[in-house]
Amino acid sequence: MRLIDSHAHVFGEFLFPRLEEITKTAKDAGVGKILAVCLDLKEAETALKYAEKDDLYDVAVGYYPNDILKFTERDFLLLEEFVKHEKIVAVGEIGLDYFSDDVPRSIQKEAFIRQMELAQKVKKPILIHNRLAADDTLELMKQYSKTGGIMHCYSAGYSYVKEFEKLGMYFSFSGNITFELEDTETQKAVREIALDRILIETDAPNLTPVPVQDRQNEPAFVSHVARYICEQRKIPSEVLETAVWENYNRLFKKA
Fold it and tell me: Measured at the alpha carbon of residue 165, what is the angle toward residues 159 and 171, in degrees to the nearest 5?
């Protein structure tokens, strides 16, 4: 098997203390690549040290919408330099989150635009966080997104798929698809998005999939996400794994 976890926070505070174990269990489960998504530069610095020693890890970094008020102008300037590193493959996760009003929407939008422009400058894909903000996310991406990337933990519904596809986006599904069965639009996306646009992820330590919801999520559990998609699409596991592997490597120009 050649599974890929296209979004995991393995260098964050919850999983990093178990990194050696997590790395081993991922490899034992057939995971051949983990995109380690970092929410600040300190986390990314640590991730880069591991990525330089183990090809299992790629690294992405960006400022998450709910965290924007933590960052100063100096932090943004440092990010602009940091993402030039050859081991940083993407800018993210970035985007909009309208679940709460902790960060004013206007500030979220400013940060989102700035980081999309940064991705264009360094010519690297973006990882999009979109929560209850599909219309604004799409509108801003149409104006400022030039690099393609991943709609992380996709749940915006099938009706938006074609518009995001036009922007060069891939769609990554996480463990929520195994238990949010009432979300019929996302379930339709799982079944009908073209195979050459699909990716899979854990979003570890969040969104632990069925049937292991009594445990903290980790990259090894991406196999459960893959299995669910295969069941819904009625395809062999090898078909999905091959598509995901090819999609990931195409997006990040690794093949």
Answer: 80
